[in-house]
Amino acid sequence: MIKQHLPTIAIFGGSFDPPHRGHQDIVIEALKKLDIDKLIVIPAYLNPFKSSSLASSMQRLEWCHTLFDDIDGVEVDDYEVKEGKSTKTSQSVKYLSQQYEVKYIIIGADNLESLSKWYDYEWLDDTITWAVASRSGDNKSLYPKDSIVLNIDAPISSTQIREKKDLKYIDSKIVKSVRQIIEGQK
After folding, report:
1. pLDDT at residue 183 tops 90
2. What's the CA gap between 178 and 186, in Å, rounded?
3. Could you report the per-residue pLDDT of 20-62, keeping only the tens digit for each?
4. Confidence band of 3 (pLDDT split at 50, 70, 90)
């Protein structure tokens, strides 16, 4: 019996609340640097480490479709949004492994301090290779062994965008929608 070759993928999950140019830069750099057939962007229904998000899961999914659907080699997947609850990364990897060889998980350097607390971290660490989007001043000693560094250093985070209501790093395709949601905050 011949084993069927599954397409190789990288998973880039997150809240994307809102998605910004840093996320877009990560996708572009990952497509250049990682040996993959496809990059799958998976917006979380709710990040396991958060109790809420500014925008609804459906809005964040729509933003991701708007920003990433036109990029060759990128697919936005609604698996976690359709789950309707906080979904562990290991669950998404197992789900996607039915169709793909999951080779990489892309994370921002801001996740490194909590990475070992992720559910099934040891299994993930044994199963995939971490691709870390670097930031200036990040602690390189926290990078997982054999991880791949994506040199991004975007000077912005979704948290800063929400707190400072600074939209200069939001793509023009979604800026109006993001502004409406941010300005609707109480």
Report:
1. no
2. 15
3. 999 999 999 999 999 999 999 999 998 766 666 889 999 999 9
4. low
Rounded distance, CA 71 to CA 177, Å? 21
DSSP track, the chain? -PPPPPPEEEEEEE--SS--HHHHHHHHHHHHHS--SEEEEEE-SS-TT-S--SS-HHHHHHHHHHHHTTSTTEEE--HHHHHTS---HHHHHHHHTTTSEEEEEEEEGGGGGGGGGSTTHHHHHHHSEEEEE--TT--GGGSPTT-EEE----S--HHHHHHH---TTS-TTTHHHHHHHHHT--
Domains of the chain are: 8-183 (3.40.50.620)
